[in-house]
């Protein structure tokens, strides 16, 4: 059977033919050397060979197998090693670490590829009849452990790969809404919309390898959310096959019809059913798009400027403010071009530090995106720049924006590159109200530095603020450190736990757009209260009483103890 | 016991001392004469005397009574006739019709007034322990039958009047969020915010007599929703006491933490628990506010202009487009002022019909509200007016806007005035996508005309479009007709059903902001699908397994047959 479109390499992020191009980024490697204080370049640890991996023998429920083969065409059912392997995990740190070492104690028993809603309906009916688990699979890009049923029983598990359901079903250009099958990957969805002159404006970092249904099931956020909203703001109506029947809502702008049924499906992470079709808000492709960069004296000042943009309703479509460490990283990330100088080096010259007397290691870079008709674009940019100026910003042109756009989908490849050198790298993201952004930021940075020290390792942590809303914004932390030789995962989980503990102890949300999966589950009750989780459990019990769907998620009572050992060797 | 603040007259809308002032509106009565083709002024039928009403004897659960009197102060528990009567119904047509005739087959057995969250928690625990029903009561302004437990069992029923829980608990001016107790009536909430320089910007027609918790439980919409959103867009976090425990969410702008728990509480209509505290987005009071009026050639053209405002992101804070009938009504609604001329008469002069050659009975009035700093206000108005101009609109100044603002909370009193004269009057509101606004509008108008004809009565129906969103807007229909002498409610329900059937058959939602109650329940499955209702039922079973809360709502399986007779004499 042919591989499905855009299936990622089994041992890492992205296309098999692509590796992170460090050779063209000497300044980046130089920065890494400084940060991690290498005495010599670390050794490269390649992933194990595919042949060396032994998957558990597939469990087969004969009655289900018989019925499902009667229902679907042979090429809709796969049980080959590569299919099972690429559907076993997402792309979390734990996943990547295990995969590279060939630690695959679990894989789905079958991978099934439905072509339309009615087939999903039939599959769920058979799964219920024969007591088989079903785990919906979009692009497999999740970083929260959304696919692997850590809480296992003896039942057969099917991975339901949605990517053949990728059609744009209807576009209503007047109303600006489009109906799309949930399995469409980002590029496929945009390509179909673009042909009609439209865009959804949803570009998460995972865009190339994530699906519409995955976005909705995990409450994804795209880079331009300031203009277009998070995915939950875009959903107008939904079709979700559940074991208890098909949920279908109406394509209306708003309603008062009891509890909003769309919102029972959004964020359900595959636990209640399979999202098969979604109607989303879409927009005419803007005539003009640019991304420009500005330097601020420090992080506080940049945040104050973002808030002012929000309050004066002059927000660009994107604002992304890097803290000093992330600013330093951004300056070194672009590929070196012959004759080009690094923008920060240039900007940090005489003027900034001499005339303005800014402290170099406090300076922060803000990227702002503007979109619209020529006139709207100009108006938007002028309004934002007049606010930035009030906060003393220095414009540094379109160069950093171009670099950002060139490299925006490359970043996850860097993680694999570092992994190969035993530098573990991950992200933790949260959101809070404006008045709490700096206190939360400082608390997390301080807790993480303490954690690195406790582990006696050289660690790096940077942060950017993005996704502005009326009440607040998101803080997105990236961290990396030189991993211990032994007990690497135990060490990693101690450090990761530090970031999440700090979020919950300091008024942050568990996650802004990365879902719960099992990686965040031990904190769910602290975030939404015990009765909040009980409400989710009530939905689960009512719509999926036999626990067919994505077992052990959201309401699985998954505590720290299990989290610390889940899926790891010898546990 | 003293009456609670802002309790409405038991037999009609609003303050006891206020009656609709028809004497100052001779043009309005003249219009009614034309429309309803009176041969002579109809007789006035006053409501029955309070003394003539006999309430059913209060059922008392002695164990609950004993425990609750130990828990609360004596003035927190009422069982007098007026308290029971004013908590029996909302203000729907069916409610008003029955109340005026003294048809009160049901009233709560006790009315309880909690002072804070912990007391609500204790009351629910006792209610669960002793198997007593609890119906949360805000301002009693609902028009969908949200309070009366049509599906009755033998248990005692407590009406939980939330209006003593009316404090602003916290304001975070930087983040623009305010925590308020759910029982605050609109004016009380705004007054506390205004003292700090803030406003919530939520002004539903029921503003004077509805509470924050009622808004959230029913998914209310305010007149300025184009700028400030519907209430569900404003909620940042929530506290809801449920029989299964207290749900509490975090005050964060957005999250990805599974199914959005806020949205399990919003719209739950008292079926899952009692909303006790809410954190809402709030805004600095704008320096300048105006409402201006514009005439459009016809309804389609007005809608096209509203859509253009939406697409070009230059929407005023409010746009309210009347259809020709509603335009005619608006022209006659303001009180006559000595020497003043009616704006429409003036506008309809030579220029509009002579020079522009518009057809008088197609002309539509649009009211647009602008708010902000002086500069923002000017920019907003200029941008909108340049779009209106493109669609051929004629500005008719601030007069109609002033009249609208003067009279905006008077409209419900008119219903009582007409009721007294056996003219039944009601509203039905829905929402749909832009491309379907005109088809849905035409289908509803045509169905209702057919219904009036079938009833052999003179009927009037008007409509306005308001609440613009990216994908569509709301259609708000007002209708009135000369009621038959016999079987008035049966006739009314046939006509009312016509409007709802037309919504559901033509792509509208069941309601845009009036809730489900029991008045809309027979259509709920058509709106959100059988499995959608099953999902709500799952929540109910999980959080309130003993069916303590607001029995029979949302998931009560309330069909047409019961709807047609519910609460009516002899049924």
Question: Would you write up a description of this structure?
Answer:
Two copies of one chain form a homodimer. The first copy, chain A, has 22 helices and 18 strands. By secondary structure, chain A is an alpha+beta fold. Among the domains of chain A are: 47-161, Uridine Diphospho-n-acetylenolpyruvylglucosamine Reductase, domain 2 (2-Layer Sandwich); 288-408, Alpha-Beta Plaits (2-Layer Sandwich). Chain A has a seven-stranded antiparallel sheet with strand order 15-12-14-13-17-18-16, with helices on both faces. In chain A, strands 5-6-10-8-9 form a five-stranded antiparallel sheet. Chain A has a four-stranded mixed sheet with strand order 1-2-4-3, with helices on one face. The interface between A and B is large, with 87 and 87 residues.
Task: Tell me the name of the CATH class of the domain at 288-408 in chain A.
Answer: Alpha Beta
Give the biggest sheet of chain A: 7 strands, antiparallel
Name given to the CATH architecture of the domain at 288-408 in chain A: 2-Layer Sandwich
Low-pLDDT runs of chain A: none
Number of helices of chain A: 22
Features:
18 strands; seven-stranded antiparallel sheet; five-stranded antiparallel sheet; 36% helix; 571 residues; homodimer; 19% strand; Uridine Diphospho-n-acetylenolpyruvylglucosamine Reductase, domain 2; alpha+beta; Alpha-Beta Plaits
Task: Explain the layout of strands and helices.
The structure is a homodimer of 571-residue chains.
Chain A lengths: L25 H11 L25 H10 L5 E2 L2 H6 L6 H8 L9 E3 L4 H14 L2 E5 L19 E5 L6 E5 L4 E5 L4 H10 L2 E2 L12 H7 L6 H4 L2 H4 E8 L2 E4 L13 H4 L8 E8 L1 E2 L3 E9 L2 H13 L6 E5 L1 H9 L10 H5 L2 H6 L8 E9 L1 H17 L3 E4 L1 H9 L3 H9 L3 E11 L3 H18 L4 E8 L5 E11 L5 H18 L18 H5 L1 H14 L16 H6 L6
Parallel strand pairs in A: 2-4, 3-4
Antiparallel strand pairs in A: 1-2, 5-6, 6-10, 7-11, 8-9, 8-10, 12-14, 12-15, 13-14, 13-17, 16-18, 17-18
